[in-house]
Amino acid sequence: MLTTCAFQLLFGKFYTFYSVKWVYLIALLIFEVGSVVCAAAPTSEALIIGRAIAGVGSAGIFAGALLIVAQTVPLEKRPTYTGLIGSMYGLASVAGPLLGGVFTDSEKLTWRWCFWINLPFGAVTALFIVFFYTDIRKVKETNLTWKDRLEQFDIHGTIVFMPAIICLLLALQWGGSKYPWGNGRIIALLVLAFVLLAAFIGIQIWKQDKATVPPRILKQRSVAGSAWFAAMLGSAFFVLVYFVPLWFQAIKSVSATKSGIMNLPMILTLVIMSILAGGLVTVTGYYNPFVIGSSILGTVGAGLISTWEVDTAHPAWIGYQAIFGLGIGMGMQQPLIAVQAVLKHRDIATGTAIIIFSQTLGGALSISIAQNVFNNQLIKNLGKEVPNLDPSIVLATGATSLKATLPSEFIGGVLRAYNLSLTQTFYIAVAYMGLSIIGSLALEWRSIKGKKIEMGGAA
């Protein structure tokens, strides 16, 4: 997440000034190199380095896939294809952890296959791109000096933006877990993050069209609304994708693999609705009803999930997940269509990067915030339900091992405390989906029918 967020906007610049085909292939290569480093990692430090490298590559892969669609598919048909891409994104969100659990539990394959498996898929993708995709955009050759080329990439903004995002994410990840919020490290990281972000904003205003995020693009109503909606939707989605399986593990006493299977109602409805919504936008020409419907249905679904109790039965946990999944699938890809409908061809790569960055950063921040809320509420609720049990014992016990590890007289109280803490954490997803309506209503009502928008070359 750290490197993906940090490099997302920079890839928007790469795709603006260079061949989409070759930037995408380079991003894919970086991701594959990172996967190899992870798979062969002899130490935890090497694994971290590998994941950081893979994160850089992944920052360019998703945006590149969407831009390839933008180059090859007319705008009015684009929602169908972006819906397919979005459905695969949602499916991967649960299939990844599920396969990871299978590999980890296997004596022959081990966790290293979580990374080795990326290689054949990446190779097949690269072959298809090399032989079957022609970059129709003509990148103009210019005699720019190295200084001018650096200016194109807003080197000043990039230098302050990357450490700002890294400091912010580290502070939120470590705060309240590894270090207390009052710890000097956390305070220093937060102060540095906000100072650097303030500097980045100032640089964007100064640079104008040469900025990483040109102000004129963000001033466009639909772009700002889409970025807000994507950030809120991504935040809500990541919170529930992360914590709903934890609820199954702790409350229903299932394995990590089984919890992934029990999370399928959310993901399958997301996949189906993402494809269906894309097709309907293509037919009707309007994405606004689906964005608004996503905010409403997603809020209702997240709210229903937050009502789960220890004894919640199958119909409720299946049905409520399905409602939330329908809401997310209905709106996940619409911001990308909105920015492509309102921006000029030269700005589409930057607009796409802004939306993906907003969704990714929202997810990264929301998980850190939700983790802190969960830990704090669990300590508080354990003190009420089982005052004679040291909360640190429960925190150190894995969610799947509660009943097997703790004394039987404490199990009932611990499960009630765990359930309450998780449902209180689910409230965060409810709030995010509720706030997404601000972005939904901000989008201009524009039909994508009859419009021919092509990706243009860089000057």
Automatic annotation (TrEMBL):
Segments traversing the membrane: 22-42, 48-69, 81-103, 115-134, 155-174, 186-206, 227-248, 260-283, 290-308, 314-332, 353-374, 426-445
GO molecular function: transmembrane transporter activity
Localisation: Membrane
Domain (Major facilitator superfamily (MFS) profile): residue spans on this chain: 1-448
InterPro entries cross-referenced by the UniProt entry: MFS, MFS_dom, MFS_trans_sf
One Gene Ontology cellular component annotation held by this UniProt entry: plasma membrane
Positions in coiled-coil regions: none
Membrane topology: Multi-pass membrane protein
CDD domains named among the record's database cross-references: MFS_Azr1_MDR_like (cd17502)
Keyword list, A-Z: Membrane, Transmembrane, Transmembrane helix
Name of the protein in its database record: Major facilitator superfamily (MFS) profile domain-containing protein
Origin species: Orbilia oligospora
Native organism taxonomy: Eukaryota, Fungi, Dikarya, Ascomycota, Pezizomycotina
